[in-house]
Amino acid sequence: MNGGAGRPPFCGGEAVQWRRKDLLGLEPLEREEIELILDTAESTREVFGREIKKFPTLRGRTVVNLFYEPSTRTRSSFELAGKWMSADVINISPSGSSVQKGESLLDTVRTLTALGADAVVMRHSQAGAAEFVARHTRAAVINAGDGAHEHPTQALLDLFTLRRRRGSLDRLKVLIVGDIAHSRVARSNLWGMSKFGAEVTLCGPPTLLPPGIEGFVPGVRVTTDLDDALPGAEVVMVLRLQRERQQKGLLPSLAEYSREYGLNRERLRRCPPDVIVMHPGPANLGVEISEEVASDPRSVISDQVTNGVAVRMALLYLLLGRDTDGTAA
Ligand code: CP
Fold first, then answer.
1. Which of 18, 101, 250, 294 could be joined to 207 by an S-S link, Cβ 3.0–4.6 Å?
2. Mutation to probe ligand 1, out of 93, 124, 154, 238 (largest number of atoms < 8 A from CB)
3. Distance (Å, whole) CA 69 – CA 80
4. SS3 at position 301
């Protein structure tokens, strides 16, 4: 069936196993919970092939995208995910809302709760903001990035993309390169990958490697020598240089950073031939990754974006797609 009104493919009994109100990070999740999300996303992906993608699973539910920082991928994919499942989706950003008049985060959340929000997808510059909000609303809260703390849905879509490409997540050899200090993507991936026994190497200039990061999860190695680390990597995840979060003086110049840590065609030759190249986006092309590497067949950057919708549909379904007695809708 290729219509929109049919039973969605992920309407099985899996929601009965999902017991969390919120998704605030990957740190507290068990491996089995991550697998449940990825398996559900595998089912949601079937919708991509349909001519009409809309179906009624979340009809009558309200999802609020509350973004205090800019976003293209995360916000749009949550909006699509909600709309394809027939939820009402509202987008709120500081400009154009009462945040500009000085309304506090707490009052904003109380207002959204009073308006009947069932889920709040939230991005904020402060670590812990999503957890704070979750304590003050009955709505499900999904952390869409809080400071340098976690970006769990990005890591879930990264894991989903890797599992689809490689067949398994077990014992991955991953090299994460770049601005580790400011990266919530790196932290969420470290939590997620560690639950599958990954060997993760973090690489960057000393000023962008936070002290003690090697003890963050078991099996983490740290190096400042990218050329030395590339040959052993099954996966190279390049991070965006987060200039908006950096203090002045952390890097001599962008040109020097690119020379030492940019992934270019020459460096790609040092990797195993079937290496998987990832970047969460948005990429500073020509700085941390060259345009030709970003568009190389070994790059899965476009897949990451597409898979973001599947993973976010799965999460909204698991968090909201239940009747009030907890059974699958
Ligand atoms: N990867 C990511 O979070 O991208 P956006 O900032 O565009 O949402």
1. 250
2. 154
3. 19
4. helix
The CA 309 to ligand 1 mean position distance, Å, reads 12
pLDDT tens string 271-304:
999 999 999 999 999 999 999 999 999 999 999 9
Residues 311 and 160: beta-carbon distance below 8 Å? yes
Provide residues with CB under 6 Å of ligand 1: 71-74, 154, 280-282
What is the three-state SS of 137-186? CCCEEEEEEECCCECHHHHHHHHHHHHHHHCCCCCCEEEEECCHHHCHHH
Query: 304 phi and psi, to 5 degrees?
Result: -60, -45
**Which amino acid, one-letter code, is at 46?**
E
Q: Hey, which of 66, 73, 284 would you mutate to test ligand 1's pocket, going by the most ligand atoms within 8 Å of its Cβ?
A: 73
